[in-house]
């Protein structure tokens, strides 16, 4: 074998030296580029920074308990730093869920990607109230429009006695209606008042329906000094007139009505769409201090780009309800994705909420008990917010 001569050795050495210089120059350039980029991203106006809602949601859920549980894997002494009311997180369970994408507490994650159409029924629990899990979330009854509009016999529900304004109620919005209440599914009714109906899909009526709950809520709010307007448009009739579908076009029809109302009334700050759930009484009723109430559930439209603001309101109201009437609120769920509306007209206002009040088996007495409590809690929230903003609506 011929040995490389001195000239060949020199060429190899020069080539290696040249390649090494290129590598070093590349590292130095990348190092300085990293510093420049970090400086740019940290000094740029926050309005123009790159952000990820997914990362934000994920990091918002990380607490000191997560960090302490992670450190405890190496040193058990960190357990002493845990708050008394907290228990360590099973990090092996976390690792398993991250590795398999199967959530131990949610059986849907095991088969959800395997069964065709299963994701149509997928949703997220943002706040789980007492007893709420993925097996008892809201159920929307969406029969054909002709079933909704069908004439049915109904008994006259009990009316609530007129009550005097809350004592010592000094604050008031005056002649301003700051709350707008409407019903996208305005014919949703209740089985106790429909003698010929037995199933949730038959619980519809043109008079005895969820609109009575809206009317009562407006009265209860006014007792606390908060003006409220109730929409009287019959969305079912609008759908029939336009030949639209009940399941897919109801929110489309109600949005036209909402936008017209908000154009006419610039004082509206809160928009509530009241519904009746289709699940049964054992899941929609609670007794507190010997009094029976219809439970409520807040529903957030996950396809609304600004849903975080709507969620912030629902979160606060749920917390206030839980503080005084524990278990009355079933929590907050987020609904969205392919095959459904996913916005629920909540894009009209950052203070727009969809609220499920009771279910098909609840009585008006139970529903009215709930509107009274909700008005009380909402008034606390409203007047506290007015105090903070410094724009009290109190009459002079």
From TrEMBL:
Pfam families: SpoIIP. It comes from the Bacteria. Keywords: Membrane, Transmembrane, Transmembrane helix. The chain crosses the membrane at residues 20-41. InterPro entries: Spore_II_P. Residues 153-172 are annotated as: Disordered. This is Stage II sporulation protein P. It comes from Gracilibacillus thailandensis. The lineage of its organism: Bacteria, Bacillati, Bacillota, Bacilli, Bacillales.
């Amino acid at each position: 074998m011929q040995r490389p001569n001195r000239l060949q050795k020199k060429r190899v050495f020069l080539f290696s030296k040249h390649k090494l210089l290129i590598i070093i120059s590349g590292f130095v350039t990348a190092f300085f580029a990293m510093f420049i980029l970090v400086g740019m991203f940290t000094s740029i106006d926050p309005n123009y920074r790159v952000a990820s809602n997914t990362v934000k949601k994920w990091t918002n859920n990380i607490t000191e308990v997560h960090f302490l549980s992670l450190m405890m894997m190496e040193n058990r002494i960190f357990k002493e730093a845990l708050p008394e009311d907290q228990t360590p997180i099973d990090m092996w369970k976390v690792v398993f869920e991250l590795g398999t994408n199967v959530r131990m507490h949610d059986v849907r994650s095991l088969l959800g990607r395997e069964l065709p159409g299963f994701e149509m029924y997928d949703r997220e629990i943002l706040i789980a109230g007492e007893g709420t899990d993925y097996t008892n979330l809201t159920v929307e009854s969406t029969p054909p429009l002709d079933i909704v509009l069908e004439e049915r016999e109904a008994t006259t529900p009990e009316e609530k006695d007129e009550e005097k304004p809350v004592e010592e109620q000094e604050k008031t919005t005056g002649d301003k209606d700051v709350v707008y209440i409407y019903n996208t599914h305005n014919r949703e009714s209740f089985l106790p008042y429909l003698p010929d109906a037995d199933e949730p899909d038959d619980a519809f009526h043109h008079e005895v329906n969820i609109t009575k709950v809206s009317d009562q809520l407006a009265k209860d709010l006014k007792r606390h000094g908060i003006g409220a307007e109730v929409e009287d448009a019959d969305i079912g009739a609008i759908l029939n007139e336009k030949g639209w579908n009940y399941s897919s076009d109801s929110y489309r029809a109600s949005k036209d009505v909402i936008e017209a109302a908000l154009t006419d009334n610039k004082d509206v700050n809160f928009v509530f769409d009241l519904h009746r759930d289709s699940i049964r009484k054992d899941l929609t009723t609670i007794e507190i201090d010997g009094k029976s109430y219809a439970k409520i559930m807040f529903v957030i439209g996950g396809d609304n780009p600004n849903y975080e603001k709507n969620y912030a309101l629902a979160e606060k109201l749920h917390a206030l309800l839980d503080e005084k009437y524990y278990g009355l609120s079933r929590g907050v769920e987020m609904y969205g994705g392919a095959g459904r509306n996913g916005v629920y007209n909540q894009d009209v206002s950052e203070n727009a909420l969809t609220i499920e009040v009771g279910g098909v088996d609840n009585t008006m007495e139970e529903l009215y008990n709930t509107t009274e409590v909700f008005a009380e809690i909402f008034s606390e929230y409203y007047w506290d917010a007015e105090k903070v903003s410094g724009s009290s609506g109190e009459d002079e």
